[in-house]
Amino acid sequence: MRFSLFLACFNAAYKALICLFRRISKNERLNAAIAGFMAGLTIIMDSKDRRMFITVMMLARAIDTIGNML
Fold first, then answer.
1. H or E segment to which residue 9 belongs
2. Res 20 pLDDT > 90
3. Residue 35: its pLDDT value, please?
4. What's 10-70 look like in SS3?
5. 33 — alpha (psi -120 to 50), left (phi > 0) or beta?
6. What does the DSSP 8-state code read for residue 1?
7. If 0-12 CB within 10 Å is exposed, 13-18 middle and 19+ buried, where does residue 34 land?
8. Which domain holds residue 45?
9. How far is CA 69 from CA 32, 46, 54, in A?
10. What are the angstrom distances between the C-alpha of 34 and each of 2, 48, 53, 66?
Protein backbone atom coordinates (compact mmCIF):
# COMPACT_ATOMS: atom_id res chain seq x y z
CA MET A 1 0.00 0.00 0.00
CA ARG A 2 2.80 2.42 0.87
CA PHE A 3 4.65 1.63 -2.34
CA SER A 4 1.55 2.44 -4.39
CA LEU A 5 1.13 5.69 -2.49
CA PHE A 6 4.78 6.54 -3.12
CA LEU A 7 4.47 5.92 -6.87
CA ALA A 8 1.26 7.93 -7.14
CA CYS A 9 2.70 10.87 -5.21
CA PHE A 10 5.97 10.73 -7.12
CA ASN A 11 4.21 10.94 -10.49
CA ALA A 12 1.77 13.61 -9.34
CA ALA A 13 4.51 15.75 -7.82
CA TYR A 14 6.70 15.43 -10.92
CA LYS A 15 3.93 16.39 -13.32
CA ALA A 16 2.78 19.31 -11.14
CA LEU A 17 6.32 20.65 -10.78
CA ILE A 18 7.04 20.31 -14.51
CA CYS A 19 3.90 22.33 -15.32
CA LEU A 20 4.84 24.96 -12.75
CA PHE A 21 8.42 25.26 -14.00
CA ARG A 22 7.32 25.53 -17.63
CA ARG A 23 5.52 28.73 -16.75
CA ILE A 24 8.59 30.12 -15.02
CA SER A 25 11.49 28.99 -17.22
CA LYS A 26 12.00 27.74 -20.77
CA ASN A 27 14.98 25.48 -19.99
CA GLU A 28 13.40 22.01 -20.28
CA ARG A 29 16.41 20.01 -19.10
CA LEU A 30 16.92 22.06 -15.98
CA ASN A 31 13.20 22.02 -15.22
CA ALA A 32 13.07 18.24 -15.51
CA ALA A 33 16.11 17.77 -13.30
CA ILE A 34 14.78 20.03 -10.54
CA ALA A 35 11.29 18.52 -10.70
CA GLY A 36 12.72 14.99 -10.58
CA PHE A 37 14.87 15.80 -7.57
CA MET A 38 12.00 17.41 -5.70
CA ALA A 39 9.58 14.60 -6.58
CA GLY A 40 12.18 12.10 -5.41
CA LEU A 41 11.69 13.38 -1.89
CA THR A 42 8.39 11.48 -1.81
CA ILE A 43 10.45 8.33 -1.09
CA ILE A 44 9.86 9.16 2.58
CA MET A 45 6.35 7.69 2.21
CA ASP A 46 7.60 4.16 1.56
CA SER A 47 8.63 1.77 4.30
CA LYS A 48 12.13 2.11 5.65
CA ASP A 49 13.07 -1.43 4.58
CA ARG A 50 12.54 -0.76 0.90
CA ARG A 51 13.92 2.77 0.70
CA MET A 52 17.48 1.63 0.06
CA PHE A 53 16.44 -0.76 -2.72
CA ILE A 54 14.29 1.85 -4.44
CA THR A 55 16.98 4.48 -4.06
CA VAL A 56 19.59 2.23 -5.71
CA MET A 57 17.22 1.50 -8.60
CA MET A 58 16.46 5.19 -9.08
CA LEU A 59 20.15 6.06 -8.94
CA ALA A 60 20.92 3.54 -11.68
CA ARG A 61 18.12 4.98 -13.80
CA ALA A 62 19.35 8.54 -13.21
CA ILE A 63 22.90 7.64 -14.23
CA ASP A 64 21.57 6.02 -17.41
CA THR A 65 19.49 9.09 -18.22
CA ILE A 66 22.37 11.50 -17.59
CA GLY A 67 24.59 9.37 -19.83
CA ASN A 68 22.01 9.49 -22.61
CA MET A 69 21.62 13.26 -22.25
CA LEU A 70 25.37 13.81 -22.60
1. helix 2-24
2. yes
3. 92
4. HHHHHHHHHHHHHHHCCCHHHHHHHHHHHHHHHHHHCCHHHHHHHHHHHHHHHHHHHHHHC
5. alpha
6. -
7. middle
8. 2-69
9. 12, 29, 22
10. 24, 24, 22, 13
The pLDDT of residue 16: 94
Q: Between 36 and 49, where is the model more confident? A: 36
Confidence of residue 7 (pLDDT cuts 50, 70, 90): confident
- Number of folded domains that form the chain: 1
Q: How far apart are the first and last CA of the chain?
A: 37
pTM of the full structure? 0.69
